[in-house]
Amino acid sequence: MDRVILVLSADHHAGHALGLLSPYTLLTSPTDEPYKPNLCATQQYLWEDCWTSPLEEIRRWAGRSPIHILLGGDLGQGNKHKDEWVRQTTFADQAKIIQANLEPLFTRRLEAIEIAIGTGAHNFGKGGLEVTARDLVAQAHPKVHIDISYHSRSNIHGCLVDMAHHGPWPGSRQWLEGNAARYYLRDAMMRDHNVLGKEPSKIYFRAHYHYKVCERVGQMLGGKIYESWLIEVPSLCGLGDYAHRATRSAPFIINGICAIEVIDGEPRFPPRWFTKTMDIRSERSYP
Ligand SMILES: [Fe+2]
Ligand SMILES: [Fe+2]
To answer: What is the 210 CA–ligand 1 centroid distance (Å)?
Structure first.
């Protein structure tokens, strides 16, 4: 029996005042003084409850099986929304924070890390920040495969995974959630089969919306029924000014990661979600 555990995560937004920040990050000031940035309560929650504790649990679950990491982009905050930075983080700072954030992934069972390039606004354009962070991580761990591209199609132990940062809108109302994802997924499967002459992937992994989506589509193509899943993972970042506006004042936020067991090339669904939902409203009562 061949078993591998896929770990899916995205939107860490390193450099954002509420983004993922390793407490072991060591930055250098412009006067060449090393310092460790302080974590706020949200960042401690993200680091411990939404990132390192789930990774520890996944490691136990994986046992002797390899762990394959898929990172769906926006690993840094970039320079478009500077007002939301931790202090005044530079390009170099953000690359170092990403490197420190990825350090807990390096265990004996790690097989590979694949990275999708995220939104240009969050990587200083053209994937610059994510490519630089990948190079830093690869230099520190030369024996591990760490691959990066905008859009990938990987055969992971017989399971085809299509990964890119931008995907379908999760849905503007709770009762509409997943509708756009299913249309998108059916289209992706048909494009793979009918336009590109390829077998549809089993998993289409997307990110960007900082929300949790898991949808399945069965589609007849060329006389054969294919079944594929679309997964979008929530972020490891809190809600800043921009996100409050973009979500039109969402009352809660979901953070965390996702893991999928693949046995003999077949992904086992539903996936295991290591996510937490937090009500972000200030509760008050008078008198
Ligand atoms: Fe993002
Ligand atoms: Fe994005």
So the answer is: 6
Ligand 1 centre from 276 Cα, in Å? 17
Residue 46: pLDDT band (50, 70, 90) is very high
Give residue limits of the domains in the chain. 3-279
Q: Starting from the CA of residue 166, give the closest ligand.
A: 2
User: 78: which 2 tokens?
Assistant: 């970039």
Share of the chain above pLDDT 90, in %: 90
Expressed in angstroms and rounded, the spacing between residue 238 Cα and the centre of ligand 2 is: 14
Ligand 2 center–CA 275 separation, angstroms:
19
Q: Name the CATH topology of 3-279.
A: Purple Acid Phosphatase; chain A, domain 2 (3.60.21)
Q: Could you check whether the bond before residue 270 is cis, i.e. omega within 30 degrees of 0?
A: yes
| Residue 6 CA to ligand 1 centre (angstroms) | 21
Ligand of minimum distance to the alpha carbon of 247: 1
Q: Over the chain, what is the mean pLDDT? A: 95
**Is 90 exceeded by the pLDDT of residue 113?**
yes
